[in-house]
Each structure stands twice: as structure tokens, then as C-alpha cells.
Automatic annotation (TrEMBL):
Transmembrane segments: 5-26, 32-54, 75-98, 104-121
Keyword terms of this UniProt record: Membrane, Transmembrane, Transmembrane helix
UniProt superkingdom: Bacteria
Signal peptide region: none
Protein's name in the database: Phage T7 F exclusion suppressor FxsA
Chain residue ranges for the region called Disordered: 145-164
Biased composition (Low complexity): 150-161
Species per Swiss-Prot/TrEMBL record: Microbacterium fluvii
Lineage: Bacteria, Bacillati, Actinomycetota, Actinomycetes, Micrococcales
Amino acid sequence: MKTWIVRFASLYVFDVAVLLVVGWLLPSVSVGWAALWAALLLTALTLWVKPVISRWFSSRAAKSAHERTKAGEKLVQFALVFIVELIVWVLVVLLSGVNVRGFFWGWVLPPIALLIAWIIYDAIDDKVEARAGALYDSATGGIRGSKTDAAATSPASPAAAEGRAELNDGLTAEQRRMLDDLG
């Protein structure tokens, strides 16, 4: 659950910034305060709807992949990515207060800008999510109370560590820590 909250929050903040930049750079796109709601929609669409649409289009395109050259296949892949980005952009515009004027500058160019932004986010998402996770942990650490904080920060006794190592349950130390974080 924490991972989804952190991923959603970090992508949301990034999407707000991207929408504001798109609204600032493109005079045909008016974002303003609608960026808050539009970013919420964009984040939800990116995390849950975009993968479904991408898989559907990819499965359709894969049926005829053997008939295309390598260059043709790359072109089809780029076109599919653009179509998915265009669908996401149209849904964001229709369901939020973002105003668009002009076909090319309002409907074609912003999905390309979103694609570039998501490429940038993909390159930095591990660092962003790690930092957001640390902020999440520090924020929820004060809420949980001193009992949980003391248990989380106090080192385990050597006997407890030895008992954990002897479990021989096939889990790595990292997997055990993740399971301990859940409970």
C-alpha cells in the first residue's frame, strides 16, 4: 500500500509541474488552477488506464508485426505510443478544466510534451520515489507513536537476528524487511 501511495504522490507532483509547464509554454493550452485536478486525472490514467490501453493496442499490432520491416515496426510502436498519449490527453482535457485551442498546438503537441516528460520521469522515478518514501516514513512515523518508533529504530538482539536467519523460509533479508513493514 505504501508503495502505491508513494508512487501516486510523486507522479502527481510531477504531473502538476508538467501541466503547468505545458500551460506556460503553449499559449493554446490554458491550465491554471485546473492543473491540480487535471494532474490527479493524469496520474490515475497513467498508472491504471494507460497500461491497459497500451497492452490492447500492442496486442492488435503484434498480429501483423511479421509483415513489417524493422523500421516499419519501430514506426508502428512510436505511433501506438503517441495514440495512447493522445487518448490520455483527450481524457484529461474532457474531464478537467484544461482549455485547448487549435488542433496542432492544443491537441497534437501536448501529448508529445507529456511523452517527453514521462521519459524524464522514468529516468528519475527511482530517486523521486525513494525520497517520497522517506518523507512518507518520516510523516507516518510521528503518527504511529513512540512504541512503533522505538521498535523500528532499535536494533534487534543477536538472538532474534540469529532466529530470523534460521527460518530457512527462502526469503531474502530484504523480502523479510518488506514483510515486516507490512505488519
